[in-house]
Amino acid sequence: MSKHLERLGKIREAMRQQGIDAYIIPSSDPHISEYLPDRYKCIAWVSGFTGSAGTLVITHDFAGLWTDARYFVQANEQLQGSGFELVKLRIQGAAEYAEWLAEKLSAGAKVAFDGNLASLLVAQTVKNTLEPLQIEVDGHTDLLSSIWDDRPALPQVKAFLLDEKTTGQSTTSKLEAVRQIMAKSRVESHFISSLDDVAWLLNIRGQDVPCNPVVLSFVYVSQQEAILFISEGKLDEQDIAALNGHGVQVKPYEHAFDFVKHITSSSILIDPKRTCFAIYDSIPSSVKIVEKINPSTSLKAVKNEVELNHIRQTMIYDGIALTKFFKWLEETVGKEELSEISIAEKLQAFRAEQPGFVDVSFSTIAGYLEHGALPHYHATEQSNYTLKPEGLLLVDSGGQYRTGTTDITRVVSLGNITQEEKDDYTIVLKGTIEGSQAIFPVGSKGYQIDAITRRPIWATLRNYGHGTGHGIGFFLNVHEGPHVFNPTNVDIAIEEGMITSIEPGLYREGKHGIRIENLVLARKYYSSIFGDFMHFETLTICYIDTALVNKELLDQTHIDWLNNYNQWVFDMLSPHLSQAEKEWLAQKTKAI
Using CA atoms, how far apart are residues 585 and 353, in angstroms rounded to an integer? Predict the structure, then answer.
């Protein structure tokens, strides 16, 4: 019996003992994080699935993983022999398993989950769907701790503060901005669980979550006080004194859960998407709960000029590393043994040579041949391909620097490319270009940029199953809200100062994958009698391979954009390169 089947059996036995008919395990932690500390990688421990988005639902006769199109192939492979089956989500992030449970279970059944791992929004969806059917929902049941004998402890790595020269705004100023929004919302207090919001608000960074420079913590804010709940020993006395100077008290991390039970303010603002159900359910009934997006989420999405200047410099550092990497790759493949894992390590080494580099911003996706068709592929020792001088290689990677976060995808030819591969590449490139050169009215939403980017891809009866773009933090999470470029974002407007990826793709299962990604900055463009308009400034500085381009599929506007972009890349990077690197890049950026 596999270890995953054994664990599934133990969960079902615990369910029988407690009269539970269905048990839900979300991919999350008490901070509703996307990327998790090892202690909270529950889905991977139970089922073997290592993707960053999914939900397990276990009944006595079925066990399923609900996840989206990014992970279908990966899930099918990883779930083999685990006792779990893949259930394909129709809408990314939706709690569609709630409706499934409504059809599966009868009145009087009991559904349970651990409220520390489920967001308030998810818990409400489950309760609102099932309770009217007389199905009991218990959000305070942890079935894993008693059977997970070697469960990892919480990380104890030190945290640190960033200075105002880096962030461009003091903690005092950020707290005042949050309090102003609280006052407009007529709430007395605010509880923040999401780690990137805490990090931005208090200019604090850490190493508690792989690839995300955050620290496990909560923050309580009222008009009179601010309290940071963080594990003792995480901050040195100097940093604690600095926080005290901004009016922030520091208390032990574990005190947060008891603190919430004794809140005395008349009202409190919490973000239902970023607060766990256990915190919400601990708030006294006398306190009015206002459910809104964290004010800090919207504030940090708009980068200030200090941050933007740092980011532009960081893009140069990242571009230098990428240029060195792709030159090395081209000159080495076929001469030395290279694999998906080894080239990811080499790319990280090139980035590590750059000033201020801290870590990768996510696990590098190096997908060779059909592995490129897995949008969130991560090579393992079992899947690791050896590279040959033929076929397509997709590399999606990024860096965490003390002066910014990067995320970029490029596809390069290793030799002997087919016409289909060239056409797919060119069509994706058209999408990247059209999204990048979009001009749009102030107030436009993410779904509109998504559609603009997809238009040339749809025109060929092709499509891709993920969003077109996500926000990105400043030396913070590589996926940052509230803005995204996807079909469902009809609420969040694009604001000046927001940084977002543009990353259309095409994926032919079993053959190849294409994705071309740049980061762009929303900026004011022009005002006319018809209103105010915006456009994008491209931030990413790395050549786009023209050897794969079928020029016949491009309009002159696309050709001009590509030539101008590649020339700009050369102009920005060449002063920092050796003569050999400069000559190599000159060839790669040559006009078509």
Answer: 19
- Sign, CA dihedral 529-530-531-534, equals negative
User: Which single residue is written with the structure tokens 């903690």?
Assistant: 171
Mean of pLDDT values over 6-18: 97
Spatial neighbors of 516 by CB under 8 A, at least 6 apart, are 409, 410, 411, 425, 428, 429, 432, 503, 504, 505, 544
Exposed/middle/buried for residue 106 (C-beta within 10 Å: 0-12, 13-18, 19+): exposed
Q: Is the pTM of this model over 0.70?
A: yes
Closest CA to 510 of 412, 373, 408: 373
Q: Which of 128, 94, 119, 129 is nearest to 273 (CA)?
A: 119
164-186 exposure pattern, b = at least 16 Cβ within 10 A, e = fewer: eebbbbebeebbeebbebbeeee
List pLDDT tens digits, range 38-80.
999 999 999 999 988 899 999 999 999 999 887 887 888 899 9
In three-state secondary structure terms, 217 is strand
- The DSSP code for 364 is -
d(CA 454, CA 433): 11
What integer pLDDT is reported at residue 144 of this predicted model? Answer: 96
Cα 524 to Cα 81, 298, 408, distances in angstroms: 54, 18, 24
What pLDDT, in 10s, does the model give residues 248-298?
999 999 999 999 999 999 999 999 999 999 999 999 999 999 999 999 999
In this structure, how many other beta carbons lie within 10 angstroms of the beta carbon of residue 459?
11
| Both tokens assigned to 361 | 């911003």
* 271: three-class secondary structure by DSSP: coil
Torsion of CA 559, 563, 565, 567, to 10 degrees: 180
**Amino acid in position 276:** C
- Which residue, among 504, 534, 533, 531, has the nearest Cα to 522 in the 3D structure? 534
Q: Which helix (H) or strand (E) holds 528?
A: strand 518-528
What the block records as the tokens of 335 is 């001469």
- For 240, which DSSP code? H
Distance from CA of residue 140 to its chain's centroid?
A: 27
Strands 22-26 and 110-113: parallel
Nearest alpha carbon to residue 492 among 455, 449, 540: 449
Q: What is the edge-to-edge ordering of all strands in the sheet holding 440-441?
A: 440-441, 531-538, 518-528, 499-502, 469-471, 480-485
